[in-house]
Amino acid sequence: MQNNLKSQFLIDPEITFLNFGSFGACSKPVFEEYQRLQLELERESVQFIAFNGPANLKKSREALANYVGCDADDLVYTMNPTYAINIIAKSFKLNVGDEVLSTNVEYGAMDRTWNYYCKKANAKYVRQSITLPLISKEKFVEDFFKGLTAKTKAVFISHITSTTALIFPVKEIVAEAKAKRLFTIVDGAHVPGHIDLNISELDADVYTGACHKWMCTPKGCSFLYVKKEHQHLFDPLLISWGYEAAMPSNSQFIDYNQMQGTRDFSAFLTVPKAIEFFKENNWKEVAKQCRQIAHSNYQRFCDLLKTQPLAPISDEFLGQMCSMQIKTSAPEKLQRLLFEKYKIEIPVSRQDDKIFLRYSINAFNEQSDLDKLYDALNKIIKETDLIEV
User: Fold this and answer.
1) All domains of the chain in start order, with CATH
2) Three-state secondary-structure class, residue 265
3) Fewer beta carbons within 10 angstroms: which end of the chain, N or C?
């Protein structure tokens, strides 16, 4: 890893931070830009919000749209992907008996969102069982569409899963779904800044991504993309100044979701600085080195835990995160032990009846970080009954 990059982050040096996938971390230049913007907001809030806000948000959206491959007027900023999907799920027209097809390894907040709105409509959220480990893209697509019925109206799927850290063949899923005349909704929370993304080429009807994860912006910065021909279908979660706007822009979608009264949108405005930081530090090469560290260690952790990788160890299925099933009856206790005794920040997460341990590798990580994790797990296996092998 480039030696200068560790010093460019604010991560606590006393902590071995292997949980970048949860909330990410700002680089110092991006955080400094964030604080500059917040100070500007406090010094003259009227100018910042009412007069300069729309133009500054437009500039930031244009930078983001260029980065993720879509039209700037087809995306809006949201606080997080869950907020974005709530916009979609609340307005998506579901009739009695309709089905939304998904997988059984989606992010818990998204499962809850779809369950809530499907129940209200007397529709059904279908969590199609995915066999792990994955074998191939073709097998995944085949298994996924076994959940298809005549009542299926939409597909909702992660681009990269949270607990299991897998890259799903979303392009192939979207193409097949479109051939079947299904509406396509993709949760790409972990994608921007992590793996290549071109939303227009992907061709999903709806896509959401987080900037505060792998793009290294401040927390509370994400986006929602909706194809232009579908934007009229979705109401904002909040009705505010954008509805029947006194000074409408050329996009009702933007007005509805952006003009929502007083809020600190400083985090949204840091996106151009984050992209600039990536360019200055040759981030494609940084990401490649991170993937190499993540992948080269995956099998030895699986061997230690007497399990197997969740997919072939390649860029096709894995990015800068790897997840292992771990046998423990007390995942929360294990997570706290790793943090409090060994100073390792890492998630130990439940996914239905299974438990997974997931490490994330980014620019500030080194091989020694994974060595610390390996030694800690080895000690816990030998000295406690928290992990079964």
Assistant:
1) 6-18+282-383 (3.90.1150.10), 31-276 (3.40.640.10)
2) coil
3) C
